[in-house]
């Protein structure tokens, strides 16, 4: 059938086989089909980072990513980051440092930080600022977000 | 103070765990069976008569379940009873680009989109009004017929205190000028979203909405659908920021309720980012003329202020804004002679409304810049000049505002010390500068918008499992009000925080709180929660019940002149900021090196959360200073997206040092007062004063974008 694609993908470790439309975005797929609403839509145009997820470990704005193009990919959303009850160190650090106010930027922000520290575990402050520059936060002034990420990066710095 | 158990401790906001794991449900995330989707057809015209609307083809489209136009719901509404001038959809006439004209509900968003394309609207263009100045006199085709004398004036305020004439005679130093401010917007990250659902019998309505004011929304929905307020239930899920932008009852909230009624289905609308921009009710653009005088000792003699405020197409909070532009400008200084004229003019721009720091940000900017100019003329340090003019504790202002706690002096001293002001001012390298400014803001309005509303009631119940449930109408919009209520309750009852549950912002379950705006929640809902816990504790010790109720009632305050209630607050916040800049004289680019901000929040119930408010305020103020402005082509916003509307990003935000000052307010819960709005005020003028200190340019317009700064630099060099 034209305009419909069959894809298989793994989201947070769970395999899915789905039929997706040609214009359907990954954000729509995650939020509407899989009820993974932790991925937020702030602009639907690639300008805010609220919808950021990891596609095969790479940070992507899911609002700009066509679902049909992630066939075979492994996706991590904010819901898949904690290990059961145990938060990911970045999640823990965001909570403890008061880096969360309204929380709408938080999922994308945390995943941005995850992607950064995967590449550069002991990232410097300027690398951190650069890495989250595609994620808009209107509440915190970024101060405590940067602090939260820095704390995790510094912990990794120590042997 | 060490005698507190929970209050005064830095703790993560309640809900942090849900937010950081993606479990927190915002309105657009809520699951509904058989949900239908709404879209609004918006006007491409700024001012036009609607000649005809033909919805027949849309109605006939399979999958469309309801179509409405302005004719269906003509009741006017708004946030202030004196300005009920909005309708769910335009009735006969559109007044700004983006105003809703028709709306559809359909089984899918795709079908709704197709349906919008099938609606034919014929417009007849009317004279468009974009210049507020011109709107002060008679115009061809008024925007609203209720403006006086054929003009577009929405509200005019004239106030005069003291004796302006002798004050001017005593004046030795004077500064004055005209300043211009563009429109800026809230920029909250969660777009507006609302779901409405009617009961089977069609006599009860439930609305889930991203709102700061569930009880105002309930009131308006009840009015429009002609129901008892008790039959309307408004629930606020998690909200992704508001900053004043979700503090009106909005047309789209009425629209989805109307579509849901007609279709018999739950109906949702979630705005696109562009829709958020074009329907915003944000900071009023304004032109401010001000003169400020001081006598030979350097005491302020008079303040003379004219504000022309661009209201856009509708009233919103504008009457209050018009007062605030004047009366909130006087503090934190003693100025006994004060004249103000404020005019809010309707124009064919999107409506202006309330935004963080409501009403006084632009006039504050002007005043703090003029203070800097006078200090220079006198050859006195601008910190010292401010210090010698401060209002004291426990005094009345010229407008008869009652000042109680006042940490202003400490705030100046703290930023002065932290920034190394005394060692560095005047000794900085070329192109570097330091500037200082102060703030003054309300902790909630003493008078309620609807006279019959109580301010805030909290009911706290001891449950059988030993936990305590706090029921409050207060709306946590990310600022952390739930956490404040829990901390206050735990403190009074002497229990750990984990024993306290919060149920809030659900008009069907919670007693009233009038909303999260005007920096009122910590002070008023916090105090109601404290009283509820105190009453519960007494009940429990007497053994006569397991419920405690607390109500916040503002003391009777203020003068008797017309408008005396505007700006009246049971407590005021104070603050000061020092900004350090480096200006590139080749490019006009301003680098913000560091910002110090000290804010008197009375008592920091949760220091980490207070810092968060201060840092967020600094960030938003900095944006207004350096880069934020809406650009219009005719009545259309040319930069209605996050790429072209430039907010400060992580790469550009400077180091921010937030300093908490605690003056222990006598009436706030455990001494607390506001910290979420006043803190924005001083940053903008402090930055401008720093630019002057750096390169000798007095900014009379915002934002201080490089091209503008460069042209000012050239102008200064020439003269
Ligand atoms: S929602 Fe995808 S970048 Fe904003
Ligand atoms: S916490 Fe609200 S946008 Fe970042």
Structural account:
The complex is a heterodimer of chains A (159) and B (719). By secondary structure, chain A is α+β, with helices and mostly antiparallel strands. Helices cover 33% and strands 17% of the residues of chain A. Chain A has 5 helices and 5 strands. Chain A has a 5-stranded mixed beta sheet with strand order 2-1-5-3-4, covered by helices on one side. In chain A, a hairpin with a 2-residue loop joins strand 3 (52-55) and strand 4 (58-61). Chain B is of the alpha+beta class and 719 residues long. Chain B folds into 3 domains: 16-24 and 448-552, Aldehyde Oxidoreductase, domain 4, CATH 3.30.365.10; 32-126 and 190-240 and 246-279, Aldehyde Oxidoreductase, domain 3 (Alpha-Beta Complex); 286-446 and 562-718, Aldehyde Oxidoreductase, domain 4, CATH 3.30.365. The N and C termini of chain B lie far apart (56 Å). Chains A and B meet through helix 2, helix 3, helix 4 and helix 5 of A and helix 1 and helix 15 of B. Bound molecules: FE2/S2 (inorganic) cluster (2 copies). One FE2/S2 (inorganic) cluster binds next to loops of chain A.
